[in-house]
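Issue 218. Parser rejects a valid record. Input:
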Amino acid sequence: MADLRDFTGKNRKFTGTIGEKISSGTTGERDTSFGSGTLRFNSSTNLMEYYNGTIWKSIDAPPTITNFTVNGGSPTVSTFLTNTSSIATIVITGSLFDTNSLTVLFEGNGGGNVSPLTTVINSSNQITVTVRTNLFNNTYEPYDLMVTNASGLFTRLENAFVSDGAPIFVTASGTLGTIRESTRSSYTLSSAAATDADGDTITYSISAGSLPAGLSFNTSTAEITGTASSVVSNTTSTFTVSAATTLQTSTRQFTITVNAPQVTTFTSTGPGTFTVPSGVTTLGLLMVAGGGSGGSSLGGGGGGGGMLDGNITVTAGSTINLSVGAGGQQCRSGDYYTGFNGSNTTFGPIPGPGLTATAIGGGYGCGHSNPIRGDGSAPGQNSGPNTITIGGTGGSGGGTGSADSGANDARGGYTSQSPSAGVTGHGHAGGTGGGSNAASAHTGGGGGGAGGAGGASNQTGYGNGGPGGIGRISTKSGSPVYYAGGGGGSPHHPQGGSPGPGGAGGGTAGAGPGSRSTAASANTGGGSGCGGHPGGGGGTGGPGIIIVSI
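Output the parser choked on:
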């Protein structure tokens, strides 16, 4: 029987403006009995489709992306942080989005594709997705944004996202440590730095607060260096370090505490002990030996005790032996006696290095004599003419006395203070004395000090005694104090000269006619001045001191 369709509908012309009605049905109602070329509207996908003899293929236009926002912003390129697991919300705007089914993909360059955690089709013009940011890997950046409709047609926004991790600080926020008094100098700390997984250059800054006074900040390395200023009470500085790359900035707040000096002072001469507190491995150490005593009539001043000032490495909890040196005893009154050397001050053996720090006692000031040196008879004995002419060797050298003809040897007593157990030593030579002629008038040289040499007696005109050498300042006590000044030399009073003044740091001046010089100041290691002519004896040298600071 013939099919009516064989006789009707040939070359049919469609007219009107409404359009033609095509068969409609769900996906489950598809019928392939007509074979290839069958056209219908799929009410499940809301798309026209046709059968090609093998499969049904949808007829669609590709979607488009016009913009996107990340967490409320509106960048043209967005950056994800790879070092966090935070979830970003991305709103994609465009057109022709399939309202029934589509997929969103962040396609990496060569791999590393990332799929959203959730996808919501708001409309044919908007999609909202969430994504975990740490899934993005800078190895595969930049990432393209792809939207694919159910028809298989898609759109791609190229280079939409890059993966750039923010710098990661090496150290947790909080304290970077405590600077003790003994570690204020040459302080170095690098643990405020950060690393960057992408290898980007990091520039650092202090974005809030400030470092302790005296410290500097390196903007390339975040290294903190310098000498922290001393404080009178424990002081904590709070500051924020910013670590910035081109795209990312991380900040972290830190503190550094500078402690006021915790000082232990030993002033009693003789032995003692110091116990290192738990957790302490560095000590500040000041040691001053006993000062030498000045000679008698027409002689030189005593040298200041040797001085050691610096830091040492110790073992926490250990006990260290020590001894504070006494000052040289006064010489007897009378003409031409020498003084006495001061006693050494020691600290050790120090557990760890096993060394003992030794500050050398100050050298004695000698009495008047002939420039011909004799056998160097023992200090404190009446040397008389033709014997002692050079001040004693010590931490700082003693001053040289006057001579019966011409000037003495062109030097005073030598210094023997050198670094000890790694601590810097300080000491200087004594000054030279004068001759018997009217121009130099029997004048004696000053004793050396930790900060400078003893002064020579006046060689022009009616002479004054040589001044004692200046001592040296230390702040180990918590404030600046002079130590180990030299004693002043003696003039020949009938010629109208003046006694040499003592050096700052406990040294005392030479004495007036026939008088004993004043004892050097206690616990400074100062040298005493020479006694006055005729018959005046030298005073006692100043006892030493040990100051330990942490």
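Fixed in the parser; the record now loads. The mean pLDDT is 87.
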